[in-house]
Amino acid sequence: MSTAVPPSSSSPSVAATVSAATAATATATVSAATATAAPAAADLLPDVVRMDREVTAPKGATVAETGEPRKRAAFRPDIEGLRGLAVLSVLAFHAAVPGLTGGYIGVDIFFVISGFLITGLLLARPIGLWDFAARRARRILPAAATVLVATAAAGGALLDPLRGTDLARDLIAAAGQFANWRFVGQQTDYLAAERDPSPLQHFWSLGVENQFYLLWGVLLIGLARYLHGRRRTLAITLATVAIGGVSLALCLRWTQTSAPLAYFSTGSRLWEFAAGACAALAGGALASRAGRRPVLWALRLVGWAGLAAVVAPLFLYDRTTPFPGAAALLPVLGTAAVLLAGHGSLRAADAGRLLSVRPLRAAGRLSYAWYLWHWPVLTIAQARYGALHWTTLLALTAASALPAWLTLRLVEQPLRYGSSPAPRRGLAVGASALVIPLIAALTLGGGTVRALGGAADAPVAAPAGAADGPSLLAPGTRVLALTPSLARAREDFPPGKGCEIPLNADSSPRCLFGTEDSPDRIVLLGDSHAGQWISGALAMAEQRHWALEVLVKPGCPLATLTVRNNVLGRTFDECDRWRENTLTRLTSGPKPRLVLLAGLNRYGSQEERTEGWTRTLDRLTALGAPLAYLGDTPMPGKDIPTCLAASDGRSDACFFPRDTAFEPDPMLDGGLAARYGVRTLDLGPLLCPGDGPSCPAVLEGVVLYRDTGHITDTLARVLAARLDKGLLGAPGGAGATGAPGTSGGPGAAGSPGAPGGLGSPGSPGAAGVPAAQP
To answer: How far is CA 130 from the centre of its chain?
Structure first.
């Protein structure tokens, strides 16, 4: 299940940690002789600090342990409310609440707040790198580890073994703070992007934040060590602008070329942190002028404008909005404006006063833990019970506030305040919070492997397939266990995966199989639904000592029509260029013995597909080479291996509706094949036999599909004999039911000299089996 906008949003971790480190210091000081030092700004829980009360140190801490006495940074209730607005937006979006279609901008709000607070903290006073890392570890990692371990336990109990295997891998990435890069790789993989979202997909934002902390902490602490005063401020300002500018350029570029890379990667998100950092730097510069009336009114106006810019995208944006890109400028700059307007004496005025209402602040206090808990609850529930109505999702989201509150009270606060703030203690807590989820991941992974009957095995020889007739397997062939095994089914790809070029490529590499130096070759042409037939086409080529040339591009129709690619989040311009380059390449090269066409039959409307195929066939028939067309296979619309694993291999539990498995095909049903003399083979009646309402996921012990719509390579090899007879068999064989009006028409090549020469083109929709057979 892929969307233009990935379904998870940002972690409010840093936003929960400090309150406007750049604001005026609190009035209370601590006596060096009788009191203990106050906790650092990064360790301040918003619900224990008020503007009008003293802040004391953790119980038992001493000045020697915590450093010299210092003043406390003032608490900003408007920031707490802004965090509440951000987390409620994210939760509403994930619960599919009608109207709040742009709630995913909560990611941007949190990132800007994080940049603002961390920059203010590091500017306010010197701090060591290890001390900074320890504070981050105590604040972020214990709650995250709690949720990771709980998700591992729930996944092991409630998810099928295949999803459990994926979850174990996601646990490792989330615990290691590189989940965002794992999801970049998955979402940019055209085939993997079809899978359901991970219960830990929202941990991508935690990875981005922690990678930002590493960069920003080293940069600002390093500059503070060697520069002082105005020189340090100038250097930090220049570095912030430079990093933010480069990151924004990458964001704009990647949003146009690769939506998942733009959404999940650290490089395309740093500018949002930098915007918050600029607000912190500007607030310091305005500190001496905040009391002037023109500045006062200007900041009030900026605050209201910023709040409007934050709220408007909640209702104006949706999943089709190219994001982050230029669209992210509105909530990012709006958040920075609200933070700047709340500086100094304006921190609780006007827009800030509206954000400081109790409900928003209550949500803000719980935001980090609530964010961590809600997504696993929603995804595991839907994996277990199917798609749920938005009211049910909203109820589950509200219920997840309970474990979030318990995590806040029993995990976050005790570990942050119940032990010495010495760096070594914080680092020890962080190390434990990393190791424990890794142990949970290994335990879960081992359990899923045992449930699947062992690790994914190596490819095995496919059972012999029938060359014709109603049976899939050859007479006398029996399969005693599911083939391929469930552990391997999702990885049962055809050879030469590199032949299926990346989405942003517009030309295919040289990709030959079989007798590569042979002057005779079969060309396999189309999208990933053509690529799934590589093994079958290769068997045809090897039988004749020919070469097989593979020219395929995932998600790209061979019919000439422009489409939108949801993985990229935009019009698929590379597809149009690839199609043109490929057709030109075939025209300029030696004539193939056979051009085998195949592809997904779901691009555009039926009329658009008909017009697109007409334009493409006009060019292909000019080659003078024989043309053949493989009808599209049934579309299950659900992950078949996962379904089988969830039902303990019971294939009857994974039937799918016949009426959604097929779309009208202009090549088979619209007369185009007859008009252009294209030989056809339709395997739909074999893979979905009979006339009942459902199609099987397993046939005669063979698992037919490796995901939501592609056949397993095992099935392609089983069908090789049927492809050979139906497409290259002698005239009169199965599938050659007679020529159209004139056998010498376009694409009718006669009989190649090689054994098993091509017969005359079949009639439209020739099924490859005798008419009386299914």
So the answer is: 33
* Residues 576 and 626 sit within 8 Å (Cβ to Cβ): no
Cβ pair 524, 551 in contact under 8 A: yes
pLDDT of residue 192: 61
Token couple for 746 = 């376009």
Distance of CA 610 to the CA centre of its chain: 33
Cβ within 8 Å of residue 231, ≥6 positions away: none
Q: Tell me what the mean pLDDT of segment 136-153 comes to.
A: 94
Pairing, β 627-630 against β 679-681: parallel
Q: Phi and psi for 732 in degrees, rounded to 5? A: 90, -10
What's the gap between Cα 587 and its chain centre? Answer: 38
CA distance 421 to 226: 26
Tokens describing residue 596: 């085998």
Q: DSSP letter string over 171-198?
A: HHHHHTT-HHHHHHHHHHSTTGGGSPPP
pLDDT digits (tens, 9 = 90+) for 156-192: 999 999 999 999 999 999 999 999 999 998 886 655 6
- H helices of 410-503, in order, are 413-417, 423-451, 486-489
Question: Any residues with CB less than 8 A from the CB of 673 and at least 6 apart, and which?
Answer: 629, 667, 679, 680, 761, 762, 763, 764, 765
Q: Which two tokens stand for residue 600?
A: 């997904």
Find, among 100, 2, 1, the residue nearest to 569 by Cα.
Answer: 2
Residue 272 has pLDDT above 60, yes or no: yes
Neighbours of 665 (CB within 10 A): 23
Nearest by Cα to 108 from 412, 291, 332, 376: 332
Q: Name beta bridge partners: 526.
A: 552, 598
Give mean pLDDT, residues 502-527: 93
Mean pLDDT of the chain, nearest integer: 83
d(CA 135, CA 113): 17
Looking at per-residue pLDDT, the higher value among 61 and 692 belongs to 692
- 564 phi/psi in degrees, rounded to 5: -100, 140
What is the sign of the dihedral through the CA atoms of 88, 92, 93 and 99?
negative
Q: How, if at all, do strands 702-703 and 698-699 pair?
A: antiparallel
Task: Please measure the distance between the N-terminal and C-terminal CA atoms of the chain and give it in whole angstroms.
Answer: 32
> Alpha-carbon distance 29 to 42, whole Å?
18
**Helix/strand/coil (H/E/C) assignment for every residue in 617-682:** HHHHHHHCCCEEEECCCCCCCCCHHHHHHHCCCCHHHHCEEHHHHCCCCCCCCCCHHHHHCCEEEC
CA 504 from chain center: how many Å?
17
DSSP 497: G
Decide the pairing of beta strands 694-695 and 656-657.
Answer: antiparallel
pLDDT, one tens digit per residue, over 318-343 is 998 999 999 999 999 999 999 998 87
Q: Residue 417 pLDDT more than 90?
A: no
Specify the DSSP element, H or E, that contains 699: strand 698-699
The single-letter DSSP state of residue 46 is G
Residue 384, C-beta contacts closer than 8 angstroms, at least 6 positions apart: 158, 159
660: how many CB neighbours lie within 10 A of its CB?
A: 12
Backbone phi and psi for residue 370, each to the nearest 5 degrees, phi listed first: -65, -40
Query: How far apart are the C-alpha atoms of 64 and 42, rounded to whole Å?
Result: 19
Say if residues 331 and 313 touch (Cβ distance below 8 Å). yes
For 411, which DSSP code? I
Do 427 and 137 touch, CB atoms closer than 8 A? yes
